[in-house]
Amino acid sequence: MAALGITVALLVWMATLMLISIWKQIYSSWKLPPGPFPLPIIGNLLQLDLKNVPKSFAKLAERYGPVFTLYLGSQRTVVLHGYKAVKEALLDHKNDLSGRGEIFAFQLHKDRGITFNNGPGWKDTRRLSLTMLRDFGMGKRGNEERIQREIPFLLEALRGTRGQPFDPTFLLGFAPCNVIADILFRKHFDYTDETGRRMQRLFNENFRLLSTGWLQLYNIFPSYLHYLPGSHWKMLRNVSEIKDYTSARVKEHQRSLDAGCPRDFTDCLLLELQKERYSSEPWFTLDNIAVTVADLFFAGTETTSTTLRYGLLVLMKYPEVEEKLHEEIDRVIGPSRIPAIKDRLEMPYMDAVVHEIQRFIDLLPSNLPHEANRDTVFRGYIIPKGTVVIPTLDSLLFDKQEFPDPETFKPEHFLNENGKFKYSDYFKAFSAGKKREDVGRVFPGNCPSFPLSAVVKHLYGGPDVFLPSTEGWPPHSESCLSFS
Ligand code: HEM
Fold first, then answer.
1. Counting atoms of ligand 1 from 1, which one is nearest the CA of 435?
2. Which of 106, 146, 203, 293 is deepest in the core (most CB within 10 A)?
3. What is the pLDDT of residue 484?
């Protein structure tokens, strides 16, 4: 009996050694960046706190350096930490590392649209969308006016709260939601509109769910966890509902499309679809347009809305910052007109506060996952094709040298000794690299600064704040885009 026990123990021991040696062979067959030894099936999950992955990355970077390898389940992943490594990856290797790592909760968007597209049509969809957002009447002036036209609606809704406590989530969210909805499909939601609220609730819920431990785990083990009950089902349903909404808008537009009079972004894409050079492209479909619109609707609304909400929270916590900001708003904009882009030049403090809010709230600390498009030599290592690459952004935004005392909210991080705005190349809240970086950057200035000045002005400005009329909106809703 004892002999049998010893034999079994020996066999188990040998099998374990064999497994480790096979695993080591696979693992060391590439010149991968260093990293903790992965276990079969779960990889390096034990090294990660799924509730705070960015913090785990920072700890691992202390041990393995700014470029390290991790296995999330069986998915090989290279994490880049710190200014030099992230910049090198996003700028010097922008062609090699601009694929998109898969996010399974967005399966419905797979290989379609912009954000979650890793397929053959991504580049063209992105290029076409950017061209339209930039050139076709949605460039600087057009967007400035759009944002300015929205401000009275926001102020009116704020006034409606009559100084009582209120939840600002949807009220603030309607402003960016309407600006982007106007560009995409010429829609303006009333601030009590149920569909507008519903869309915002879905965006908001998805953003929150994406950072939960369960969704991170689901992304690592989608096939094991898919059929279990859990919040991934909610997320999948939400993604599908948003896409149904944008699909309905696209079909509506298709029915009333007039080639001589494109009304918005959706019309422009529908007209491209009719062109010969795209009509034969298998990726350019109505579904691709619906997903592109959904990507922009979600990304354009939730990011700006969350930034505004957290911005207000920060100002409540730092009344001395709000006071200085308010002084500058009163001095430059005054009580009787709406903020304009040109004001930014004379408002270094506002510029610094908005940058500091974006730095401090660290909206996407681990960026969106990239993927290596080809075997890539990086600092003497090889990052094999198909490896997920994570160019962390918090490692730049919280760099101790660039932003001394980084955990404290200090607009001075972006001001020089003369009180002028100080640019920092470490400010990469929108990522970088032209290939994959944030599409919202085509918007004039920093998107959140406009509505922020209006909100600050209203909340702290007293009764004499100018409130232009919101009557007659949307103006000439049937008119065509003026191509500028
Ligand atoms: C506070 C505002 C915003 C922040 C902090 C932000 C941040 C980001 C970041 C970090 C990425 C990932 C880039 C990468 O993969 O390297 C991204 C991607 C993207 N953003 Fe934004 N964004 C903001 C506003 C917007 C707006 C207003 C829009 C649209 C109108 C937008 C549309 C997109 C799209 C479409 C992508 C995917 C780009 C691609 O995969 O090619 N974002 N954003």
1. 41
2. 293
3. 34
